[in-house]
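FW: tagging you since you asked about this chain on Friday. Here's the raw sequence from the shared folder, copied in full. Didn't touch anything.
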Amino acid sequence: MGRLPHHIFIVNNDRCFGCAACIALCPVNALSLIDILAIVDEPTCTHCNLCIPACPVHALSIDPIPGV
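HL: got it, structure written out here
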């Protein structure tokens, strides 16, 4: 799957607890941990969705950009 037009990768900081399961699966190294939270480098992210089902607390999503 390629990048979805008019969509953005979201990390819900209220849910993320820094387990790093997503980071290990990212094929382009678009995710990192900062202060025990997953952070995405959105321009690098390919929206491949490999990380999303790996999150045990459902903190990751790819959502439409509001107003676009």
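FW: The two ends are 21 Å apart (CA to CA).
HL: agreed, and The CA atoms of residues 7 and 52 lie 15 Å apart.
FW: great, closing this out.
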